[in-house]
Amino acid sequence: MQITEIYRSIQGESSFAGVPCTFVRLTGCNLRCSWCDSEYTFYGGRKMSLDEVEAEVRRLSRAGVVEITGGEPMLQEREVVPLMERLLARGYTVLLETSGERPLERVPRAVHKIVDVKCPGSGEGGTFRAENLATLGANDEVKFVLAGREDYDFARQFTAEHRLEERAGAVIFSPVFRKDAAGGRDSSHCLLDPQQLAEWIVADSLNVRLGLQVHKFIWTPETKGV
Question: Tens of pLDDT along 80-119?
């Protein structure tokens, strides 16, 4: 596997936000979102065997939550599916963060999929693979990263059209953090004001979760490996 980094930190997003977590960040992504904050994962990294990755995860934590992320981890499906199976067998709670552009039918059902549906403001709208809707279950979450009102309207319509509240365990609307954000640990770096997003959600009586990238309020937003 091509690995950018493996580290221990606090889960910053999803319904697991705030929980200690071991992150396995894979190298490579086939999308180029305009607001991407992890472009350093596109290239480089180092080759590690499944045994080496599993050993490093166990060195960092013998139990708890592990997130497989990227980049786009499902570009390495051949290796990442067995890795998830190994970690589940060890008793870990396994999260998979994915764009939803790659097929997800081989992901073990016990894995908590966090599937990012790209909105128009990302520059990668329309890349979500519709077949992946059938793979969603109560363990899974669908996330929309929003840069403005157009993205919000898209996410609201997509959620209603595909009955995401029934298909998945949670639907998350999250404001974009500027990829060049630096310095202060506050919401001034969001392209969409979280207060404005909260007001839209309440006004429309949506049954969704407003998600903030908690790690960017704990550490400075440009900090990597957290």
Answer: 999 999 999 999 999 999 999 999 999 999 999 999 999 9
User: Which residues, including other chains, have CB under 8 Å from residue 36's CB and lie 6 or more apart?
Assistant: 29, 179
Structure tokens at 175: 């404001």
182's CB contacts (< 8 A; 6+ apart) are 220, 221, 222
Say which residue, 180 or 20, is predicted with more confidence: 20
Specify whether the CB–CB gap between 122 and 34 falls below 8 A. Answer: yes
Q: What number is the average pLDDT over the span 47-53?
A: 97
Least Cα distance to 210 among 187, 226, 188 occurs for 187
Q: What's the Cα-to-Cα distance from 69 to each of 26, 103, 110, 139, 208, rounded to whole Å?
A: 6, 15, 16, 17, 23
pTM of structure: 0.94
111 touches 84 (CB < 8 A):
yes
End-to-end Cα, the chain, rounded Å: 21
Beta-strand pair 209-210/170-175: parallel
Please give the Cα distance from 38 to 62 (Å, whole number): 27
Least Cα distance to 159 among 211, 96, 209 occurs for 209
Residues whose CB falls within 8 Å of the CB of residue 63, separated by 6 or more in sequence, listed in order? 91, 92
Query: What pLDDT digit, counting tens, does each position of 5-24 carry?
Result: 999 999 999 999 999 999 99
Integer-rounded Cα Rg, in Å, for the chain is 17
